[in-house]
Amino acid sequence: MNLYVPLNIIRFYRRRISGKPDKYASLSSMLERARLRITMSEILALALFYPLLSMIPGILLGYLVSEFIRPAEFLVIRGVEIEYWKVQIAMCAGFALLAFGFTRYLILSYPIYLSNIRRGRIDAALPHTVNMMLGMAKGGVPLVSIFRFISENKEIFGEISKEFEKIVLLVEVFGHDIISAMRHVADTTPSEKLKTFLENFINVYEGGGDIVEYLRAKSEQFLTERETYYALFFETLQVFAEIYLALFIVSPLFFLTVLVVFQLMGGGALQLFKVVMFTFIPLGSILVIWLIKSAIPKEPAGFAEVRETVERIDLRIADKKPGFTVDEFRLKLRALKRFLTLPFTEQPYALTLRALSFYLVLPAAIFFFLAYGKMELDFLVFSALSAVILPAIIFIEYRDRLTREMEKELPEFLKQLASLNEAGLNVVEALRHLSETELGILGREIRRIKREVEWGELVTSALEKVESRIRSGIFAKAISMLIRAIESTPSIKDALLTASLYSELEIEMRERVRAQMSMYIIIIYLSFAVFLYTAYVLIQNMLSIFATVETAPVVGTVGFNIGEVKEAFLETSLLVAAFSGLMAGLMGEGKLEAGLKHIFTLVVIVYVFFRFVLP
Question: Is 113 a member of any domain?
Answer without folding.
Answer: yes
